[in-house]
Amino acid sequence: MQVHADYALDQRSTLALRARAAAFISATRTEDLLRAVLWSQDSGMPLLPLGEGSNIVFAGDVDAALLQVDIRGRKLLRKREGCAELRIGAGENWHQLVAWTLEQGYYGLENLALIPGTVGAAPIQNIGAYGVELSRFLRRVHAVDLESGAPMVLDAAQCQLGYRDSVFKHRLRDKVAIHAVELALPLSPDPQLRYPALGQYLEQQGIGTPTPVEVFEAVVAIRSARLPDPAREPNAGSFFKNPVVSRAHAEALRADHPELPVFPAAGDSCKLAAAWLIERCGWKGHREHGVGVHPGHALVLVNYGGNDGAVLLALAEAIRESVAERFGVDLEIEPRIYGGDR
Ligand SMILES: Cc1cc2nc3c(=O)[nH]c(=O)nc-3n(C[C@H](O)[C@H](O)[C@H](O)COP(=O)(O)OP(=O)(O)OC[C@H]3O[C@@H](n4cnc5c(N)ncnc54)[C@H](O)[C@@H]3O)c2cc1C
Fold it and tell me: Where in the cell is it found (predicted)?
């Protein structure tokens, strides 16, 4: 295990923001995590776990050691009750895992194709897309406590997965490094086609009863056409969560704006399309100081070369304020923010 001091982070997040970390450690084995904890105890420098940096904003220099979890491995534990139970190393790339599971005849992850990042980060915000969330398949998370080095195993209920949410954003925020994830994937296909864009795309292709591989290919095609590639236009995907409001609030907004997309959510609440609210406030395509809102996707903020996380966050704040003022809705930033004074 090597500790790199004063480490440039420009290449460590898909937003490619300029910042430095006090230290950087890459862990390729579980033992490395324990060594990193001992080093942290000795040096007094806190550890912050990192995957592929696709859901992170570096708002400035980070006064901590970034601990990149690069532990690999894919293992079939058993087949039971119609499911393949797998244990996957946290450093595995998520999309490559999805493709591999389909090759093995393990189904369910096809709607989650092409989501950037690692397997270990997937439970942090309960990744979701095209009507499916990780929570449907997660069995267990294996982690190490970053203060004591103690091993931890959390079952799905203990992970408290919600919409882009989990215990790792609350009680266990920045407190554990996940080194493996267990999934249970059905051995029989059960395509989930409720998401309108997906159903419409398959219909246009003349595919009535798609196989999981056809769903995977459809998701890849839709995402490739719609979402800006971070390699060319550095971004962190959706910058804001879709806000959840009371049904009464949603109905009041709908009365004034009949075209506002509203989706049913848990209990007596509704989810609104954040992209629509942002676009209506005139932000789509807006640019300032080398950052901006993507012209094709109002939820995506792009680093056009400004490279300054604080400037990007100032733009995000201006967007939040205008949406709050016009619609009375609070937008919540989705990516995790590190550095600066955060
Ligand atoms: C173009 C684009 C499209 C996207 N589309 C989607 C989408 O459709 N749905 C969706 O849900 N997300 C989406 N995202 C967000 C992102 O892909 C996910 O949040 C992903 O899980 C982040 O993985 P990562 O390895 O890059 O994590 P990072 O960005 O490196 O880290 C994210 C958070 O997880 C923590 N973390 C990372 N690894 C570990 C670990 N091993 N143990 C403990 N904590 C850890 C970090 O400390 C940080 O708080 C998109 C992002 C981009 C850039």
Answer: Cytoplasm
How far apart are the CA of 117 and the centre of ligand 1, in A? 5
Paired sense of beta strands 47-50 and 62-69, if any: parallel
- Confidence class for position 220, pLDDT limits 50, 70, 90: very high
| 263: alpha, beta or left? (left if phi > 0; alpha if psi -120 to 50) | beta
Ligand 1: which residues within 6 Å by Cβ?
14, 48-56, 69, 90, 115-118, 120-122, 124-125, 127-129, 176-178, 227, 230, 235-237, 336
Q: Mark whether 164 is an active-site residue.
A: yes
Q: For domain 235-338, which architecture applies?
A: Alpha-Beta Complex (3.90)
Residue 14: name the closest of 315, 302, 311, 341 by CA: 302
Q: Indicate where the chain has its CATH 3.30.465.10 domain(s).
A: 74-186
Residue 334 CA, ligand 1 centroid: distance in Å: 10
Marked catalytic residue, from 85, 110, 334, 336: 334
